[in-house]
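Just curious: can you write whichever protein you like plus the matching structure tokens?

***
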Amino acid sequence: MRDPEAIYRTPLAAAGGLAVTGSGKQQARRAVTDRKLPSFAVVLVERGQGWLDTAASGRLSLTGPILFWLFPNRAHSYGPDEGGWDERWALFEGSFTRDFVRLRLMTERQPVVALHHVDEMARLFGTLHADLLDDTNLGQASAALMLHRIVISAAKQVSVAADHRRDRPDMAEIVETLRQRAMQPLDLTAFAAEHGMSPATLRRRFTLKTGLPPKAFQLRARIDHAKQLLATTDEKIETIAAMVGLDDPFYFSRVFHEREGCSPREFRASTPGVESPAAVAVSRFHEVVYDDGALETIFHGVGKIFAAQVRYRVEGFAVRCVSVRLRSLAEAGPGGENDVQRIECRSRAVETVHHPCSGSIGSRRASGLCLRRGSCRRSSAFCFGQ
């Protein structure tokens, strides 16, 4: 059975973000005149010539491969020349469209996008059409994803074409450079001069590319890195503040709270991450051996197998971890085991605990070892944690 040339769908009630409400393909030979649509539309002209006329853009000549945007409740006319053109189209709506317009991913004044990678765009339209044919929740969600990718792909081609046309530095490279230097002080005047433009031009183009001016982009990168450090290390708050380039811990905490809605300490407490150097994410333990003040075990971590040697000392009926040595068995080279790291157990991470587990401290072998903070396996002979 041949696929229909046009499909229309009623959006799901819950699909408020982005919904594709129609899709089609045709060899167009007639013009559309003075039409208004209740939703957004995108039209892909793979080959052929024609024109587009809107109040915002005026009358434009079109030569495929191109793509153009149509905005809701705006009168528009367009059509091919006498030879016709090959056309694909999609209708869409939802709250995400406000972000597309705000970020200038599609604009009324410049609705036409010249395409340099038409095969990729045609594939996205084809997948969107096939997804919409699958009249299921999953099909509609997948069609919305394809539409989102069409918007992003078109915006990228506009950005690259503008840089090449004006023979100016690639903004993607400038953004990446600032991202890499985000933890260092930023002299905007010097940074702009480094890339051959004035601070005002840099600010305008940077904001157009990322949605943020350079200073705000730098601050976001710093806070993002701080969140990573809070979740994966035991460093003090003031140390992390200095590591991300904010030497005043009070200012760091205030900015962090303004952006994240919680303090750095609250973020650390509520975010799953590396709980401590000794609290390795473990799913199963094997072959725990007690010998001369050391426990040695082979256990499974996340996607890897490690050997751990845990040194401790016994204080009455409690056990205090002294150090942990990890070796990766999964990544061991031809020569054998590969040392990964040596970790000194910190009092904050691994504290002396009572020993509720079964088994004797003096036994030569035990059935398991618990290193996860906040948990204790009753079958274990030794338990480290808080």
